[in-house]
Design brief:
alpha/beta; 5-stranded mixed β-sheet; 5 helices; 5 strands; 39% helix
């Protein structure tokens, strides 16, 4: 649904994902405390964290690394070039699938996720 390229964890894609959270990457790094980041997961960490406004993916992966809970999958959106090799290494070391969405806009990301949610509810 998000037109993603899988960078890490293709072998884990048979696991269920129970929701998603969309996070503005830059704002999260600038404004969220460790406790705020912890609260993002809600009732389950078996969800996708979709970071929008990503440049190379390093900051979101560092934030996830220091978090006590790990998401089922991390989606990066907005990268204009290659993803930082450290982000890929951290995802691999943490055992978290890492994908990059190639959708053009954040609005497309939101709409695609809403469409998937709508289908699963029918």
């Amino acid at each position: 649904a998000l037109d993603c390229e899988v960078l890490v964890g293709k072998e884990s894609f048979d696991q269920e994902v129970y929701g998603y959270t969309i996070i503005d990457s830059l704002k999260a790094i600038q404004n969220l405390s460790g406790l705020d980041f912890y609260r993002i997961f809600g009732t389950t960490s078996e969800r996708a964290l979709v970071f929008v406004g990503v440049s190379r993916g390093r900051s979101p992966m560092i934030a996830v690394k220091i978090s006590p809970f790990k998401p089922r999958v991390i989606v990066l959106h907005g990268a204009k070039g290659d993803i930082d090799p450290l982000a890929i290494t951290l995802a691999r070391n943490e055992g978290i699938p890492l994908v990059v969405s190639r959708l053009e806009s954040q609005d497309e990301v939101v709409q695609a996720l809403l469409d998937v949610y709508r289908v699963t509810q029918e």
